[in-house]
Every structure is written in structure tokens, then in C-alpha cells.
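Saturday, quiet lab. Running sequence design on the C-alpha cells for the scaffold JK sent over.
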């Protein structure tokens, strides 16, 4: 009986861990730098770190909504279901051609690819993210990468 519940607990925690992850700031800096986001479409790394922080608190499993128009926002970069992914509910342009559930797991590589696609949109750039417009745009963001090992020898 004890063994069974221990196994259940273990299984539960494994499932939980594989579903979402809160990534420390400097690890985000390292991951996004390696993924080529520094100066991507002209935006320095600090912008991406700041945007992700105010969107998801660096939690890859963050889901918010429904927004007033019924759409939802998913994951590390709070990717919107009206435009960029499909959650099976309501209209979507599905610009990143994928299910929104892919943006709530602990592998953010596909999230990064979609974020790059979003910022390539000439009409929006980083204005696509309310969190960025509200808390990061035009501000001194140097503290977001401060104290992190940026370059490896
Ligand atoms: C719906 O709302 C979200 C968040 O407020 C926004 O990102 C999205 O562009 C809106 N979609 C439409 C069609 O207005
Ligand atoms: C931004 O803030 C840092 C300290 O947090 C300061 O050293 C730097 O000079 C500031 N940059 C600008 C452009 O104000
Ligand atoms: Ca993902």
C-alpha cells in the first residue's frame, strides 16, 4: 500500500515536472542568447527577458485568459490563440501552425521559433506583446541580464 502511494506520488511529480517549468532568469538569458534572440529584428536580449518575465514570470506552463475576445495566451511568451496557435476553440489564424498545448510544456524551443515569427510581423514587431509595451518598451532594461554569464570562453 505504501509502495503503491509512493509510486503514485512519484508518477504525479514526474508528470508535473514534465508539464511546466519555471526557468531562472540567467538560464533564460543563456537559452535565448543561444537561440539567437539577442538583436533579433533589432531587439536586444533584455527586451525578450523583460517581456517573458511580465508575461509568464518565466513559467513555461503559464496559461492566461480568456481575454475579452475569448482568446487565450499560452506559455513562456504568452502566445495568443487568436493569431498564432490553435486551441480548438474559436477562430484562429494559427500563424505558427501548431497546437497551443505545445506552448505550455517545458521545452521552449518551439515557443522561441513562434516568438521569432511573431516579431517578424512588420506591423507589430514587439508591440505584439502587451507585457512588453506596458513594462519594457523604452525603458532602461540593463538589469535584466545583469550578473549573468553572457559569453562562454
Ligand atoms: C484578442 O485579445 C488578445 C489579448 O488581449 C489580443 O492579443 C488579440 O490580438 C485579440 N484578437 C483580436 C482578433 O482582437
Ligand atoms: C541603465 O541603468 C544602469 C544601472 O541600472 C546604468 O548603469 C546605465 O547607465 C543606465 N543606462 C542608461 C542609458 O540610462
Ligand atoms: Ca514548447
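Result came back. Writing it out in full:
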Amino acid at each position: 500500500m505504501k509502495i503503491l502511494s509512493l509510486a503514485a506520488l512519484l508518477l504525479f511529480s514526474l508528470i508535473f515536472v514534465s508539464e511546466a517549468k519555471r526557468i531562472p532568469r540567467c538560464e533564460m538569458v543563456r537559452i535565448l542568447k543561444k537561440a539567437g534572440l539577442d538583436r533579433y529584428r533589432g531587439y536586444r536580449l533584455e527586451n525578450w527577458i523583460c517581456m517573458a518575465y511580465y508575461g509568464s514570470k518565466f513559467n513555461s506552463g503559464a496559461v492566461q485568459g480568456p481575454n475579452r475576445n475569448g482568446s487565450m495566451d499560452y506559455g513562456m511568451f504568452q502566445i495568443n490563440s487568436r493569431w498564432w496557435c490553435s486551441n480548438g476553440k474559436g477562430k484562429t489564424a494559427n500563424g505558427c501552425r501548431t497546437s497551443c498545448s505545445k506552448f505550455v510544456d517545458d521545452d521552449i524551443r518551439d515557443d522561441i521559433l513562434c516568438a521569432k515569427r511573431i516579431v517578424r510581423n512588420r506591423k507589430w514587431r514587439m508591440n505584439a506583446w502587451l507585457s512588453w509595451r506596458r513594462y519594457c518598451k523604452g525603458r532602461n532594461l540593463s538589469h535584466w541580464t545583469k550578473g549573468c554569464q553572457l559569453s562562454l570562453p
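Notes for JK: The radius of gyration is 17 Å. The chain has one domain: 2-144. Ask whether to fix the surface positions before the next round.
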